[in-house]
Design goal:
Layout lengths: L2 H24 L8 H13 L1 H14 L12 H22 L10 H26 L5 H13 L1 H18 L7 H25 L3 H31 L8
Length: 243
């Protein structure tokens, strides 16, 4: 494979799933956000992703030495990994969008969280593509990319949307902001953890696929309802309280 293709193709393929889902979720916003802000948030989701890797590596290094005797590749690791990834995506939005004037209505919290989540997922996909594309197996590449599109990429978008909903609620209940966002992160972490657990514990690939698909469909329905609820709440005329 030519040198340019060896680097360009995995990069492009890794971005495709996130780009498709981002196009879909942006339609949920009646007042489109500035493209530059969306690009910055997406890129920040990519940039901060190594932080999650660092904390996950730290867990594998220090977990065996803890008095609780946590298993490096057990449920505790999946829970830790899910929590760190949700916090890192929230951190990306905090850095770029949260105090920006473009963040001017509650639904923006969900939009920017989804954007950061898809940036984070894009980095994961790019790394996967760099591992498999050089092998030259187009069928395997397409199969894995499809699974990433319908699985992990959508997972990150939905879990980030859950956090975004509770961040949006803090627009109306500023004095409960910390509790609301903490609950959102906890809910997203449980969803994320459950997805990863379904992938890992089942010896039956078909059963695993059925469980994860059911979970994603249920959460996608919930997120769609939450988008509608937060937009309806804004239309009722509550004043912003994010200052």
């Amino acid at each position: 494979m030519p040198l340019i293709s060896a680097y360009t193709l995995p990069l492009v393929l890794g971005l495709v799933p996130s780009a498709i889902w981002l196009t879909y979720f942006l339609r949920k916003d009646c007042h489109p956000e500035p493209k530059l802000m969306l690009i910055k948030t997406f890129l920040m989701g990519i940039i901060v992703s190594p932080i999650a890797v660092a904390f996950q590596l730290a867990f594998t290094r220090f977990a065996p030495d803890l008095p609780f005797h946590l298993e490096v590749h057990g449920a505790a690791f999946f829970l830790w990994a899910a929590l760190i990834e949700e916090l890192v995506k929230l951190y990306a939005v905090t850095l770029v969008a949260l105090r920006n004037p473009a963040f001017d209505e509650p639904v923006d919290a969900m939009i920017y969280m989804v954007t950061a989540g898809l940036g984070f997922a894009a980095m994961e996909n790019i790394l996967v593509m760099f591992r498999i594309v050089p092998d030259g197996n187009l069928a395997a590449t397409f199969s894995i990319l499809t699974l990433r599109f319908t699985g992990a990429t959508l997972l990150h978008a939905l879990s980030s949307a859950l956090v975004g909903y509770f961040l949006a609620l803090s627009w109306f209940f500023a004095h409960h902001r910390v509790k609301l966002v903490a609950f959102g992160v906890a809910l997203a972490t449980v969803f994320h953890f459950t997805f990863n657990t379904f992938l890992s514990v089942s010896d039956n690939e078909l059963a695993s696929l059925g469980l994860t698909t059911t979970l994603l469909i249920a959460c996608a329905f919930l997120v769609s309802v939450l988008f509608d609820r937060i937009k309806a709440r804004r239309l009722r005329g509550s004043e912003p309280q994010l200052t």
